[in-house]
Amino acid sequence: MSHVVFVLLPQVHLLDVAGPAQVFDTAVNCGQPYRLSYVAEHEDVPSAQGLPLTARTRWPTLGPGDLVVVPGWQTTTLRAGPGPGPALLERMRAHHAAGGTVASVCAGAEALGRAGLLDGRRCTTHHAHQDELAARYPRATVVRDVLFTSDDRVVTSAGIASGIDLALHLLSVRHGPALAARVARGMVVYARRNGHEPQTSAMLRHRAHLDDTVHRVQDLIDARFTEPLTLARLADHAGVSQRTLTRLFGRATGGLTPLRYQQTLRLERAAHLISHGATVEAAARDVGFEDARMLRRLRARAA
Predict the structure, then answer these.
(1) Model pTM?
(2) Catalytic residues
């Protein structure tokens, strides 16, 4: 049994809680023995969206294999937010010191910062709060424009829906990518994004469909877009002919071929690397091009 404890603070964002909670609850339906609990300083917790929530004030007994999650809350600045009191901060510190994992969604990184858990570690938060988080916790390394980070059992994610990506990542690390994929399909969440991807991604723009065959192919491309992927391999993975795959893929994605979709992911990742200081040559190699000429041509065509 693995316990997942959500720490609820006033004005908590509902999706910050519900997204990760749904991931672990769906994992239970897939045979994994997770138990979910919700704790707060007071039993009644107002949410940012107006729905009142109820939590326990007494913490369950936790072990090293358990997870504490701090969802974000509505605030204009991190400093002005509610923040946890000393007792909650000590609970989080003690859990991490005992070998447990502590995670945050969006502004929840502020709680981890107050607990001292960000010092000397990589972290992230919603792009609107990244500058303030870096200023408030100079001993932390704030990684900008990524979906989530993981550093020594301290896991932080960007805003709102990225909590789902974080939870799927934790499932994948613990149980393997097959279970994470099964949970995502059960939730009808097909854009399973990696932590290094930018907070807005091409993977989302071409997932607004319900063709499971195409989603399975996109899953493979998303995971291996830096590798050579032939149409034959993709069709075999989907269990259809190459002609059928091309037709289904184009219909579901608004006219893209699998190769064009893969190139789009490569271009986006390369642009992200270049914006963070990589040379065009280094970015081209990182995303799977043999040299920078193809990357330059594709970037010019997309401009």
Answers:
(1) 0.69
(2) 106
- Residue 211 CA, chain-centre distance (Å), reads 23
Where in the chain are the domains? 2-177, 201-303
Matching residue, tokens 């907070």: 199
Indicate if 201-303 has the same CATH topology as 2-177: no
Q: What is the pLDDT of residues 97-150, one digit of tens each?
A: 999 999 999 999 999 999 999 999 999 999 889 999 999 999 999 998 788 999
User: Which CA distances in Å does 164 have to 25, 44, 187, 195, 295?
Assistant: 12, 25, 10, 11, 32
pLDDT digits (tens, 9 = 90+) for 244-299: 999 999 999 989 999 999 999 899 888 878 877 889 999 999 999 988 998 998 88
CATH topology for 201-303 is: Arc Repressor Mutant, subunit A (1.10.10)
Give the CATH fold of the 2-177 domain.
Rossmann fold (3.40.50)
Sign of the CA dihedral with 93 first, then 62, 193, and 225 last: positive
**Strand blocks (E) in the chain:** 2-7, 34-39, 44-45, 53-54, 67-70, 101-105, 122-123, 141-142, 148-151, 154-157
What is d(CA 145, CA 129) in angstroms, rounded to the nearest whole number?
11
Distance of CA 138 to the CA centre of its chain: 24
Short-list 189, 188, 239, 197, CA closest to 217: 239
Instruction: Tell me: pLDDT of 302 over 80.
Output: no
> Rg of the chain over CA atoms, in angstroms?
21
According to DSSP, the residues that pair with 67 across neighbouring strands are 4, 101
Task: Look at the block and give the residue holding tokens 């990225």.
Answer: 162
For 152-202, what is each residue's pLDDT tens digit?
999 999 988 889 989 998 998 888 877 888 898 888 885 555 555 554 566
Task: Kindly report each contact of residues 198-204 with a partner whose C-beta sits within 8 Å and lies 24 or more positions away, as own/partner.
Answer: 198/145, 198/146, 198/147, 198/268, 198/272, 199/127, 199/145, 199/146, 199/147, 199/158, 199/159, 199/162, 201/268, 202/264, 202/265, 202/268, 203/265
